Amino acid sequence: MKSQISNFPSDAQLPLDFDVIPALQPGPVPHLRDEIARVWGLPLGVRVEITFRPAYPVPAATGILELRAAPDFPWDPHRPLALRIAGCDLTTRDIERWSLA
User: Is there a domain that residue 62 lies in?
Assistant: First the structure.
């Protein structure tokens, strides 16, 4: 049985695009995000206004509250959750209050 590779010329090259980065959406799948939102009591994936604690560099931000990283399992809502809103990285400990915008 003859190998199919031998049918290619010796100087044939396959195009490999190592510099191309696939466009993937970061973050967890929606049902997982919704479950995390329920456990932490936060409106993840929803437009909100966040008022930060006084130690945070900005007083408030409005935008879609996003999950930056999924929490370790088993989930503990007393541990800080990595979040992002309007380009600001924060944790649940930085939030003084939130409201739907």
Answer: yes
